[in-house]
Amino acid sequence: MISKQNLGKKASSFFLKGFNCSQSVLLTMLEHWGIKDELVPKIATGFGGGIGRCGSLCGALTGGIMALGVKFGTSEPSAEKRLQTYEVSRRFYKEFEKRNGSVLCRKLIVYNLSDPIEYEKARNDDVFQKKCVEYVKTAVMILLEMTEEKSM
């Protein structure tokens, strides 16, 4: 079994190779869980940069929520199963917020990625390698901690 630290490094590696934050978390977790789907990482593409660089929800967070949906979600119109997935998603959201101080991309990286000048500043300041890599690792660590709990 691969260690938490190595999975964090794997997620970082995906990110540094050019996948966005959301894709990196989703790819890492689904590979770890042995889940293959042709929609991954395509489905996570639009979530990078806080949803299309709007600075909204952090892509590492949304990638984690998608991973939890794949692992615990339902394809049936079942309120009970849906509520269980809502609960695990809420716990992930709250823990990510607690560890990072926010869930919003623009607050986490302190740049407005929808502004081309701000985006270039963020690139020049290596914010993606300095900050986003850490958010990707943190999301994976939280997901691993949560899904390895006996209550899951």
Describe the structure.
The protein has one domain. Helix 1 runs antiparallel to helix 8 (about 125-145), helix 4 packs antiparallel against helix 5 (about 80-100) and helix 5 (about 80-100) packs across helix 8. The protein has helices spanning about 5-15, 20-30, 50, 60-70, 80-100, 105-110, 115-125, 125-145. The two termini are about 20 Å apart. By secondary structure, the chain is an all-alpha fold.
Structural class: mainly alpha
Note the beta-strand portion.
under 5%
Q: Count the strands? A: 0
Straight-line N-to-C gap: 18 Å
Low-confidence stretches: none
Radius of gyration over all CA atoms, rounded: 15 Å
Query: Any idea how many domains?
Result: 1
The largest sheet is:
none
Helix content: 55-70%
Taken in chain order, the helices and strands follow as HHHHHHHH
Silhouette: globular
Looking at how many chains there are and whether they match, the oligomeric state comes to: single chain
**Total number of helical segments?**
8
Q: Overall mean pLDDT score?
A: 94
Tags for this entry?
single chain; 152 residues; mainly alpha; 66% helix; 0% strand
Ordered list of secondary-structure elements with their pairings:
Elements: H1 4-17, H2 21-32, H3 48-51, H4 59-72, H5 79-100, H6 105-109, H7 116-124, H8 127-147
Helix pairs in contact: 1-2, 1-8, 2-4, 2-8, 4-5, 4-8, 5-8
